[in-house]
Amino acid sequence: MKIIKPLLLTGGILGFLLLFQSCLDDDSDNTYWPSALVTVKSADNDAVYFQLDDKTTLLPVNLTKHPYDSKEVRALVNYKEVNDASGIYDRAVQVNWIDSIRTKPMVPDLGDENDTEYGNDPIEIINDWVTIVEDGYLTLRFSTIWGGYRNKIHYINLLESPDPEKPYEVELRHDASGDVHGRMGDALIAFKLDKLPDTGGKTVKLKLKWNSFSGEKSVEFNYNSRASSPAGSDMASKRSEINVE
Asked: Where are the alpha helices (DSSP H) in 14-71?
């Protein structure tokens, strides 16, 4: 057994790299980069499985227990498909490494108190394959300035819409805790969208707004409340198509 140490975007201010012990002995380059972005889930029988997209599930045959204490989180994973029996899941895979992404719930809009409670420091959203709405989560690759002050925590929150007429218009807020000097750096964060209204099977536009370094910006994703996976009855969303303003 060995420890594989990939260098991932999820390091830095939002968490520590999880070192995953793998029984695989493959040292080829394809074990270094992530194979996919997944949701780590638990089935009724306490088995762990991955939701690859809105329709595809993966059974990690070399994981004997949930790596995150049964918490449902988004994660980057490197795996290879194997011929083991997958049961009710679509594919069987063997995991080389897995690294969780900071996964948070949405927070309420507080009106005039938003700046005080959630901050309004600038942040940039990066149009990347991991910036996506799927499986009931909004996952973002973002960039901002940090590193000027050590031990300063940056807080990223997704605000619910304050307007019942626009329930799918949400806002990203960034509180840099005064750490506004240094260099630009990237990280990942994910938000569970279970507080959004059910779309009733229809695809709607989910509009995300944020304060960038060049002013207010927005992006639209295709969103559809998700269908049940074979192992549970959560809610899911379709993959996004991004249009940035």
From this structure: none
Is this structure's pTM higher than 0.90? no
For residue 54, what is the DSSP state?
S
Domains and CATH numbers, the chain: 2-100 (2.40.50.500), 103-244 (2.60.40.2370)
Q: Which has more pLDDT, 143 or 226?
A: 143
pLDDT digits (tens, 9 = 90+) for 80-132: 999 999 999 999 999 999 999 999 999 999 999 999 999 999 999 999 999 99
pLDDT higher than 90, residue 8: no
CB 95 within 8 A of CB 87: no
Interatomic CA distance for residues 62 and 83, integer angstroms: 13
pLDDT tens-digit profile of 23-47? 334 444 578 899 999 999 998 777 8
Structure tokens belonging to residue 201: 């099977």
Backbone angles phi, psi at 240, to 5 degrees: -95, 155
What is the number of other CB atoms lying within 10 angstroms of the CB of residue 16? 10
The string of DSSP codes covering 32-46 is TS--EEEEEEE-TTS
CB of 197 closer than 8 Å to CB of 223: no
Determine contact, residues 59/86, Cβ cutoff 8 Å: yes
Q: Indicate if the pLDDT at residue 7 is higher than 80.
A: no
List residues bridging with 91 in a β-sheet.
58
Calpha distance 158→107 (Å, rounded): 6
CB neighbourhood size of 94 (10 A) = 17
Contact 241, 221 (CB under 8 A): yes
